[in-house]
């Protein structure tokens, strides 16, 4: 009879231990999920700010380029209307203005590429840091659970 009571007590305590660990694991999982959500949210907010800043810079560069093109067109119009240059000189002027425009576009393209690369690198870095923080926190929680299990066994 005593043996049955001990077995029943052992089964009951084992069920309690399993239940406690299940609750602990559930709690740790929820905490890890919350930390992941927070890290993703922080990264998302940071990236949104970077994108807004980047878009502002790009729009400003496009506006400057637009203004430069209009100025160059006005210069060409003036040369056409007030000058008696030969067609060859006019062609040379147009080619020079187009080369200048292409150079400006190349510079803007390079600037945009640098900005996009910078944002991509920051995004990867933020994600990597968040991932490692969550991984460490989850590993610590799992280790604590294992220690509790080992202590009770």
From TrEMBL:
Region (Disordered): 130-153
Protein name, as recorded: Apolipoprotein A1/A4/E domain protein
Organism, as annotated: Acinetobacter stercoris
């Amino acid at each position: 009879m005593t043996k049955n009571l001990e077995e029943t007590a052992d089964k009951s305590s084992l069920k309690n231990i399993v239940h406690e660990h299940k609750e602990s694991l559930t709690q740790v999982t929820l905490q890890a999920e919350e930390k992941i959500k927070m890290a993703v949210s922080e990264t998302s907010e940071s990236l949104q700010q970077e994108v807004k800043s980047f878009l502002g810079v790009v729009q400003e560069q496009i506006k400057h380029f637009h203004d430069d093109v209009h100025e160059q067109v006005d210069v060409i119009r003036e040369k056409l209307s007030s000058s008696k240059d030969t067609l060859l000189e006019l062609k040379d002027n147009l080619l020079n203005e187009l080369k200048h425009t292409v150079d400006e576009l190349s510079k803007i393209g390079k600037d945009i590429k640098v900005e996009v690369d910078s944002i991509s690198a920051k995004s990867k870095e933020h994600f990597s840091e968040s991932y490692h923080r969550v991984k460490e926190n989850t590993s610590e929680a799992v280790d604590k659970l294992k220690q509790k299990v080992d202590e009770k066994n």
